[in-house]
Amino acid sequence: MGGDSLVRARLGGTADTMMSKVPGPSLVKPADPRKRDDLIDRVRQRLFAVVDPKMLANRNDPNTRKELNRMITEVVNQEGQGVHAENRLRLAAEILMDLIGYGPIQPLLEDPDVTEVMVNRWDRVYYEKNGKIRRAENISFRDDEHVKLVIQKIVSPIGRRIDEASPLVDARLPDGSRVNAVVNLSLDGACITIRKFSRPITAEKLLEYESLDRPTLDFLAACVKGKLNVLISGGTGSGKTALLNALSAFVPGDERIVTIEDAAELHLQQEHVVRLEARPPNIEGQGEIPIRALVKNALRMRPDRIVVGEVRGAEALDMLQAMNTGHDGSLTTLHANNPRDALSRLETMVLMAGEELPHRAIREQIAAAIDLIVHVSRMRDGSRKVVSVCDVGTAEQDGSIAVDELIALRMMESGVVWERTGRAPRFVEKLAWQGVELPGGSGL
User: Where do the DSSP E strands lie in 44-197?
Assistant: First the structure.
């Protein structure tokens, strides 16, 4: 293993906001990239000889980082004679971010307003900020191998691998940000997608962002307190998990909650919570614990509520059975274009369980289990809003499931308005059994 690889193998964490004070990397493109690469290799070899591994282990200390920055700058100045001073400064910043961070994308990861980072190829980096996707014009990697090195740095500390045999990987950064990486499949080279971890959005914040209005929030809060089974649907990046996290705050604190996620994102405020996370197979292809196994196990953990971060496969059947066997008040999300599509997707996922159930039996289970569908959408301006709240009825004679809209988002000249349809929800009696009344009475 070369010096550069050994240094990387000893590193693990992320850089903090101190890094934002350092000029961004890869801004200078020398006439001969090979000379630049040779300079970087020489600097790294010398750093490997002088940097104490204990210093790297203490990389989160600001004083340690200042000392690393001083050492790197000194070596770059010595090895980079004849290189413009500004270029040497930027080169030192790039090497520092490689050592204690994730290379050129580190400033984006540290920007609190950036919510997603996308590396399409080594010289095409994009990010989402304030709901809009922009290209990072001044940020790029050195080459495709540089991207792969950063991917390896992300996945190695958590025991994942990515190579010719396993070209896809899902991982998590230490701060909880979700990472998906692809190598040897994209025609443009390795690519990375990072959904940054953000602090849980409270219900009051949703009001502040105009994701819904106060009457709609009060209605949903009553539904959660009344132990209705709620399904939150929407597209990618529409705010499903944020809404789920906000609504979970209305679960009474004396109830035992079990959360089940593919990658832990939920942060419930209650104390009596058990958090379970699925586990992918190891390098030998063994040890996988899928969501479905966790849902089955959760039933043996005496839960008052089961919260599934997202259903996307055969676990849908076990979740429905849990809802239909006394575990009321369950919450989950799924990808769908509208509330009715959400039920169709749920039916398809149940079929993935391979139980060969008749379609009518599946629909009857869905109708009996799901009380409410809350559909969220990402608007053209980047904002996320609750666009529809639907009551789920019984399975009809023709096999369809009755879905009635209770609240709908309307676009008016004066702005957005959440209209009440005036229909009385079917679940009023169920709420009454829990001692919960809907705000404003049974009608909307």
Answer: 114-121, 124-129, 132-135, 168-172, 178-182, 191-195
Contact of 59 with 100, CB cutoff 8 Å: yes
What's the whole-number mean pLDDT along residues 370-394? 93
> DSSP assignment, residue 185?
S
Q: 0.85 exceeded by the pTM?
A: no
CB-CB contact of 104 with 139 (8 Å) = yes
Secondary element (H or E) of residue 219: helix 214-225
Average pLDDT along the chain: 83
Is the pLDDT reported for residue 305 higher than 80? yes
pLDDT band at 99 (very low <50, low <70, confident <90, very high): confident
Q: Could you give the CA distance from residue 112 to residue 101 in angstroms, rounded to a whole number?
A: 16
Contact residues for 354 (Cβ-Cβ < 8 A; gap 6+): 314
- 43 membership: H or E segment, kind and range: helix 33-50
At CA 206, angle to CA 387 and CA 337, rounded to 5? Answer: 25
DSSP-derived pairing of the beta strands 331-335 and 230-234 = parallel
Report the C-alpha gap between 309 and 389 in whole angstroms. Answer: 19
Residue-wise pLDDT tens digits, 253-304: 999 999 999 877 888 889 999 999 888 777 677 788 999 999 999 999 999 9
Report angle CA 262, 265, 270 to the nearest 5 degrees: 115
**Pairing label, strands 168-172, 415-420:** unpaired
